[in-house]
Design brief:
The chain is an alpha/beta fold and 253 residues long. The chain has a single domain, classed as NAD(P)-binding Rossmann-like Domain (Rossmann fold, 3-Layer(aba) Sandwich), CATH 3.40.50. Helices cover 47% and strands 15% of the residues. Strand 1, helix 1 and strand 2 form a beta-alpha-beta unit. Helix 1 packs across helix 9, helix 3 runs parallel beside helix 4 and helix 4 packs parallel to helix 6. The protein is globular. It starts with 10 loop residues before the first strand and ends in a 7-residue tail after the last strand.
Length: 253
């Protein structure tokens, strides 16, 4: 695929696109000219976002996606190809979050979170991978987390472990898919100003929580969207297997 291929002829699939960071990424990609498929277990919420992005322009499409089901990923891929002939960008963003003390997590719950978060990212890469290889080009962006780097503080051990696994999967896929024109990178956000973070950190605890962040504020999900656009660009071909941390100084390396 030529590096000069216009962005507006490329399609980006975003999982967990109905709200929060996923919605910010979808908006940023759409604003940059990509055709976007909004995939989420809550397809009705995606429908609302698609209307915001102007579904009539045929630049936005929705699909129901439960990332624990490989058949759902196949459906999303088929829907993209049926409408637009190809997909060039995959953003593995969807995940579940549970915040429990480590000794209160039973094995079944640990395995469930690992299977959904790490397993969903693995499945997305594996389902879309053959299509990307045939195209000879792709950008895969996996959403990791600060919790996967420092073990987590406000999140559960299963969530942190799943995000650590996503960082490792990013390296594996980056190495194995690079010969086919495919780059794979991760973005690792710290606490963002999203409903997910607000649901974990109560209003009463927020002031103390912010004091622990060196820059003193929650992150802006719109910046994560801009970063995804940067990594999705054809010119980002020499960025591969990297983890881009956005954490306000909570994890310095």
């Amino acid at each position: 695929m030529p590096q000069s291929l216009p962005i507006e002829t490329q399609t980006a699939a975003v999982t967990g696109a109905s709200r929060g960071v996923g919605a910010a990424i979808a908006r940023a990609l759409h604003r940059s000219g990509y055709r976007v498929i909004l995939a989420d277990i809550d397809e009705a919420a995606c429908d609302s976002l698609a209307e915001e992005l102007d579904l009539a322009s045929e630049m936005a499409l929705t699909a129901r996606l439960d990332i624990s089901r490989p058949d759902d990923f196949e459906h999303v891929l088929e829907k993209c190809v049926s409408r637009w002939s190809s997909v060039e960008v995959l953003v593995n963003n969807a995940a579940v979050t549970k915040a429990h003390p480590v000794l209160d997590i039973d094995t079944a719950e640990f395995n469930e979170v690992m299977a959904v978060n790490a397993g969903g990212t693995f499945t997305g890469c594996c389902v879309f991978g053959p299509h990307f290889k045939d195209r000879g080009y792709s950008r895969i962006i996996n959403m990791a987390s600060l919790a996967g780097q420092n073990g987590g503080t406000a999140t559960g051990a299963h969530y942190a472990a799943s995000k650590g696994a996503i960082l490792t999967l990013t390296k594996v896929f980056a190495r194995d898919l690079a010969p086919f024109g495919i780059t794979v990178n991760a973005i690792s956000p710290g606490p963002m100003d999203t409903s997910m973070v607000h649901s974990i950190v109560s209003d009463e605890a927020r002031a103390g929580f912010l004091k622990n962040i060196p820059v003193g504020v929650l992150g802006d999900p719109n910046f994560i969207g801009d970063m995804a656009v940067f990594l999705a660009a054809p010119k980002a071909s020499f960025v591969n297997g990297a983890c881009w941390g956005v954490n306000g100084g909570l994890y310095v390396r």
